[in-house]
Amino acid sequence: MTLLALETSCDETSAAVVRDGKILSNVVSSQVALHAEYGGVVPELAAREHLKNLLPVTQSALREAGVSIAELDAVAATQGPGLPTALVVGFKAAQAVAFALHKPFVGINHHEAHLYSPWIAGDTMTADFSKLQPNVALIVSGGHTLLVLVKSALEHRVLGGTIDDAAGECFDKTGKLMGLPYPAGPVIDRLAEQGNPAAFDFPRPLLHDANDDFSFSGLKTSVRYFIRDHPTLLDDRQKVCDLCASVQAAIVEVLVRKTVRAAKRQGVRCVTASGGVTSNRALRRELEKACHKNGLTLRLAEKSLCTDNAAMIGILAGRKLLAPAPLPSLDEEINPGWALA
Known about the structure:
The chain has helices at 32-36, 43-65, 84-101, 110-116, 167-177, 184-192, 217-229, 237-266, 281-293, 310-322; strands at residues 2-7, 12-19, 22-30, 74-80, 105-109, 120-121, 126-127, 135-140, 145-152, 155-160, 270-274, 297-300. By secondary structure, the chain is an alpha/beta fold. The protein folds into two domains: 2-125 and 305-322, 2-Layer Sandwich (Nucleotidyltransferase, domain 5); 133-301, ATPase, nucleotide binding domain (Nucleotidyltransferase, domain 5), CATH 3.30.420.40. Helix 4 packs across helix 10, helix 5 packs parallel to helix 7 and helix 5 (167-177) packs antiparallel against helix 8 (237-266). The protein is globular, with a radius of gyration of 20 Å. The chain starts with a strand and ends in a 19-residue tail after the last helix.
């Protein structure tokens, strides 16, 4: 099966070609520079950029894969969650291609695609669902932080999630308080490497609660008041690095400890992590340390698949099209608030 997938849920325009679980191409056009001056994604601007970029990005993906549009067996796109004005561009374009070619079409939940992305690996970037073992998955991004119990391929259950600010949102908002450019998460990651994570003590929200939920609004507020009470701190680069390292340490500790605790409670021996924040070096290091200490296997999504991309959409779509279920209708609409079940 050769499949074209499109992803336009937020500010990346992406197209990928997948064949039998192998990624043949994965082209991503980022809009970070466009939205940086506004300090966040502007939905209307994102939609316009998707309209401008979708055709050349798709043509590039087909060309890189060495596949003509006539060779496609199916088409897929992100159906939700995401920004409505952004989602509709890729979703309707994909439906139009499927309609014109008389090929199957499937809409994919963006978070579910992240959920299975750690099982795409190797030099050939092929998904091997036969190796999937029961695991607790951490999906951590700018808009969501989720813990999910995965029993087998396409069989999963959400254990807990974000009740206010997600981890990635906390990175960006605290970075903005420090005067760092958008998106602040990668900047904090770089500066934190030169800082002392124990320099300042910030709260670890819900760390000792028995549930699997996350809350980072209190941490963000704590950083706001700390900066207010130490107005000269931001003039000292080393102290800024220490502040970044301390904030990052608080976020990472919550993510790691709650993930490992959930895995032990659910009786699984494997942990996975995916989503944009999984690119964070401290999070990857601390997850590796914690899993090794507790005898857990760890699978991290490849960094190229952590941020929004069409390859993970195509991989999951290919797996779903093999399942004995009726094909979705071409009359379906986007689902901006589609929560992972």
